[in-house]
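Long-time lurker. I teach an intro course on protein structure, and each term I like to show students one example going from raw sequence to a predicted 3D structure in token notation. This year I'd like something fresh instead of my usual example. Would anyone be willing to generate the tokens for the chain below so I can use it in lecture? Attribution to the forum is fine with me.
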Amino acid sequence: MKHYSDSARPLPRLSTLALLAGSLSLFGCASVGPDFKQPAAPTVSSYTAQPLPAQTVTAPGTAAGGAQHFAVGQTVSSTWWHNFGSARLDAYIDQAMRNSPTLQSAQATLRQAQQTYAAQAGSSEYPQVNAKLGAQRNGTNNSSMGLEGGDRIYNLYNAGVTVSYNLDVFGGNRRLLESYAAQADYQRYQLEASRLTLAANIVTTAMAQAQYGAQISASKAILAAQQKQVDIAHERLKLGAIARADALSLETQLEQTRAGIPPLQNKLDQTNHLLAILAGEAPGAAEVPQFTLADFSLPAEVPVVIPSELVRQRPDIRASEALLHAASAQYGVAIANGYPQISLSANLGSQALTTSSLFGAGTMVWGLAGQLVQPLFNAGLKAGVKSAQAGLDAAAANYRQSVLQGLRNVADTLRALDNDAQTLQAQAAADKSAQMALGLMQQQYQLGGASYLQLLTAQQQAQQTQINLIAAQVQRLTDTAALYQAMGGGWSNQSAPAKPVVKTNEEALMFYSNLPFESQLMHGVLL
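-- Reply from a regular --
Happy to contribute to a lecture. Here you go:
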């Protein structure tokens, strides 16, 4: 039998710790709590109770009046705004994607969530290692203890490494790490949702700018015609050909039309300001492009993602799913808090009276310790589990609501496109009739069969129907953009950034036990 002094005793190999971890694994090393499963996709086959037509009605000879075909099952392009055929719109969206403060904020928030995950992964997967170096000056009085020699003063130097490791037998730390990963996924989906919203806002705002500009031009034409009517009425009033009330009625119509132009101009100015800040620029310094209806073409074919795929395509629904995943993991953490917490710690160092002999023979000290903590009475643990369960139930309900809202969003836009086509068809017919009536009135006026006032009235009616036609055209374009957005905007669930591999207790300990002694010391692991 060999005998060793404390200084000569060989250091324990990490295989001892691995053996202990393996023994503990017999009691279970699987994470407690529910394992998250992706919610089932909707089973409905269509978005609306009434089936959609294969394609919409047409308004021949009118901008944005072509038929739109619903391509069921077709995916959405990630650059769906290119389908509107405006190079200036494409360039402006590209600029906004680079400069938008909203996107920059979402990107920074995502990086923060990813680094929070990495920090938690680093602290829970591997042993915690700390190095220490100390010195102290001590004094003893030998005479007070009945010894000879009087006072004795000496220095004590020490250096060492301490290691601690939570075995996480019941998976509380792994569930916590799972929660952080889900929260990072949530921020990633939020970033994609922000990109989709930014593109959709620019598209619809550009179309609104075109609408207000065209309506202002038509309103000014009406105002000019009404001003001529009023001038003629004043001349006829001087001659006694009309009553004062008739002239006042025309003046009222004139001023009402004049009053309607500033609100339109205000809306136009607001769209310019909004386009500027969407691109990350100040309204007073931005060079905002001026769009017209001629800049946009109506996509002839619009994709319709099937309901079961919609929940995988919309980033807002995926974000809600990530929150559900995080709540499930937090529930597991709450359950694990009630199970034993097992930790190992070790230290390796040297103590000496002089710095020159600090790492010499006979100065090495080491220690191993294990600890098991089992809660015996903690009234808050049960309440914590119930709270986490309630949070999980709430997240599940919120997810279902997100899915329902997504289905409704698509249903609304699909029905809107069909109704928009019918509205545009009617407005185009009205505009055609108004233009024909104006042509006839011009012929009658040239032949002396109609007065100039009648001609001006016909011109006003034609201009008013033109304003309504402009609104119907833009509504159809913006609802088409809304459908692309409702379908998820072509966002694809790209693979998430690589996450650190979570090792089990046995894998981590065995990994270090296979390292050379020097490497183990570098990692802070005592063998």
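Some talking points for your students: The longest helix spans residues 379-447. Strands lie at 69-72, 128-141, 151-166, 301-304, 341-352, 364-373.
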